[in-house]
Amino acid sequence: MARQARQSRQQLVCVLADNSGSMKGEKAKAATDGIRDLIMECQSRGPAGAERSYFKLLLIRFGDRATIDPSCDLTPVRKIDPDQISVVGDGGQTNITEALQMTFDRLHDYMPTLLEHPERGEHPVPLVILFSDGEHNKGPAPQSVASQIKSLSLDGEPVVIAAAGVSIGDGGPDDKTLREIASPECYMDIANARNLSRFIASVGSSGVSRAEEIARVIKTLEG
Fold this sequence. Notes:
CATH superfamily: von Willebrand factor, type A domain
Distance between the termini: 28 Å
Largest sheet: 6 strands, mixed
Number of helices: 6
Shape: globular
Strand order of the largest sheet: 3-2-1-4-7-8
Number of strands: 8
CATH topology: Rossmann fold
Radius of gyration: 16 Å
CATH architecture: 3-Layer(aba) Sandwich
């Protein structure tokens, strides 16, 4: 059965945004544009009305530490002002694990509410989007908590993590780690600013929640 976002069964999209110092400049602007475009695209879905969102957003920025944006904490998208959202690249090092742990903690409490939902069979599974331009270099390795996130499921359908490695400019992402974090076929290499914006907006607003569906969206972007 198709799982589709609707006003009565909003899809939760979790965006984990690298805000480390190496993101400053072009990459931070592209990330900002992508998150704003994601919000606006999600806001455009469905009938008009502030209370008729089809999506909810959790936004976590991570550098040395991870922080949840208080305006995007499982918040219906039509209650979010996209112009107030930004990534600036002032967070120091790259602590992917803490961002994933915060995501897992939110999802661990959220998933049981879906099991009791009257439209459970059609409710979309939450989607996690992660992008980073460097190596995880603070805190324990992230793979274990990523596996915990992917073990969460609704009727046997797991939460999907779509990850992107941003290789714009100097240095490069830790492709190996990010691929291990991502769900099967749900990793994308980002080589220019436009594709970073497209990845965030297109995957996040796709409204799909199975790994094979997300993989098709990513292949379209790569093509």
